[in-house]
Amino acid sequence: MTDATILALLGVTISLLSLGVSATTMWFAWLRRGRLAMTKPTLVFFGYDEVPRTIPKVFLRTLLYSTSPQGKMVEHMYAKLVRAETEKVFGFWGYGPESKLTAGGGLFVGQTGASLYHHFVLSVHDPGYEFVASEYTIQVYAQEAGQSAAALLTEFKLSLSDGLASALAQHQGVLFERDPSTLGYLGHVRDRP
């Protein structure tokens, strides 16, 4: 093999490696679809909204983020409460602080994320819901714009004691905070989050 042939093969090899690195970078930076994700909530609230009538509500504080460089557009979110053999969908979604609550219907979530309060309320057309002492599984779903179905973002459990259920029966609220040592949730009575 001559020196010219070796240099030519080396040049082609370096060019192919460079093309592979560029293609990989393009995939991760622009073409990868990624996914929408959610951290476990730090706060969860069971309670009631009073307008237009007393309506059960689930509220949580969490971070939504996207693994896609372009971000994701959330069209709709809802929470599902599961206990024993029953489940209830809290389908009316709003986000932001209670004083500036925005009705859901579009939220852009980039890679840096969106840390928000999410409020899930029963529809005014729903017959209602009674919080009872039990272990609850809370599932949060989001539907991206252009997608035909919602995807499960997170699922976690918490327990509602008899005392806390009694407070809810009197239309007080219960605030659950995430315990860093057990990674579970501890609840206490609170009127408003």
Layout of helices and strands, plus pairs?
Blueprint: H1 3-31, E1 36-38, E2 43-49, E3 55-66, E4 72-83, E5 86-90, E6 92-95, E7 102-103, E8 107-109, E9 114-121, E10 134-144, E11 151-160, H2 162-169, E12 173-178, E13 185-190
Could you please describe the fold and organization of this structure?
- By secondary structure, the chain is of the alpha+beta class.
- The chain has 2 domains: 1-31; 36-190, Sandwich (Immunoglobulin-like).
- It is 19% helix and 46% strand.
- It has helices at residues 3-31, 162-169, and strands at residues 36-38, 43-49, 55-66, 72-83, 86-90, 92-95, 102-103, 107-109, 114-121, 134-144, 151-160, 173-178, 185-190.
- The strands form 2 sheets. Strands 1, 2, 3, 6, 7, 9, 12 and 13 form an 8-stranded antiparallel sheet that branches.
- Strand 4 and strand 5 form a beta hairpin.
- The longest helix has 29 residues, at 3-31.
- The N and C termini lie far apart (78 Å).
- The mean pLDDT is 86.
Multimeric state: single chain
Please tally the β strands and state the result: 13
> Termini separation (Å)?
78 Å
Spans of 5+ residues with little confidence (pLDDT < 50)?
A: none
CATH architecture of the largest domain: Sandwich
Structural class: alpha+beta
Rg, Cα atoms, Å: 24 Å
How many structural domains in the coordinates? 2
Give the averaged pLDDT, no decimals: 86
What is shown here, in short?
The protein has 193 residues and is of the alpha+beta class.
Q: What labels would you give this structure?
A:
193 residues, Immunoglobulin-like, 2 domains, eight-stranded antiparallel sheet
